[in-house]
Structure formats: C-alpha cells, structure tokens
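[step 3/7] fold_predict: job queued, chain A
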Amino acid sequence: MTENLKGTTTVGVVCKDGVVLAADRRASLGNMVLSEGVTKVFQIDEHLALAGAGSVGDILSLVRLLRAEAKLYRARVGREMSVKALATLTSNILHGNRFMPYFGWFLIAGYDEKPGLYSIDMAGGVTEDKFTAAGSGMEFAFSILEENYRDDLSLEDGIRLALKAIKASTRRDVFTGGGVTLVTVTEDGYHEWSEEELKALF
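[step 4/7] structure written:
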C-alpha cells in the first residue's frame, strides 16, 4: 500500500552559502490522511540531497538507486559526484523509465564548488533553478518564493523563506501538513535541522 501514498509540498532555495530543501510530512491516500510522519528529503552523498513529491514507494526506490550510483561513482572516480552530474543521472533514469515511470517530481540539491538546485519531472525534464517547488501545494509555495526570493539570501534567510513557503501550502492544500523536514547542504555537508535547532535559530 505504501506505493499509493501521495501528496506533498517540497521546496528548494539556493542561498549564497548553501541550498535549502524543505518538505511537509503528510502522506495521503485519496482524501484520507494516512501518516503525518513521512520523510520526503533524503541524503544521497555527503554534499548531495533529494526531495521527492509523489508516490512514496517510487521515491524510495529512486533514492536507493541514486545512493548506490553515488557510492559507485566515488569508488571509481575518487571524488564525490557533482550536483549537475546527479541531476543528469536522475534525468537519464527517469527518461529511460518513462513508459513505466517513477510517479514523482524530484528536487536535486547540493554543494560542490557552489550551491546548486535542479527540478526534474517524471519524464526526465531538467530545470536548474534558484528556487523551486513541487507537489500538490506548489502553487501556494511559489507565490511566497517569487515574492520574497533574492540572490543574496543568507542561509538563515533561505531557511525562513522555505519554512514560510511550506506553511502557506499547509494552510491552503489539504494534502500538505504534518510538520516540516528541513535540510541544508553547504560546503560543510548535509545537515537535517531538528525542531530544537530551528526554534533556537528563530
């Protein structure tokens, strides 16, 4: 039944010193809320992350595949995959499976020489973005992001903006809710923020 759990809002924001990924925690089946504790943001490597909106089973399957490919790349090449390389790999996998697709919309984020963020649809179409959103509440998130994004955002301001965008979706989209998972990827690596850390920050 896990493959049928759907609904979410995911948000990505590029800041001058890192990138922020945020997602709600609700999983729904039709008009029923089945869980308020689903993780939708995942670490792929030390400086690489993915957020997924759509079928939970498909998202988890892709995450397992990308983690394995990232480890294989590191073993073969001797360094971590770049953000663009991970986005390209994800695009190729999705495009190659377009007749039996992964039912999801994916945000790839990370930090190599600079922060990077890519949005990838289920057919493998890739867009590089400074900010983006995906999922059932994306239009509400985009309204906040477009109004408030600036190129010189600090990481703290980017966190505030991502949380504000998720909160707007929670208010208006019935498939979004259950709290927030928030992750930053900087030169220092991947970090998932606890509720206590976010409260201390604000």
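[step 5/7] annotate
The CA atoms of residues 105 and 121 lie 5 Å apart.
The chain is about 35% helix and 35% strand.
exit 0
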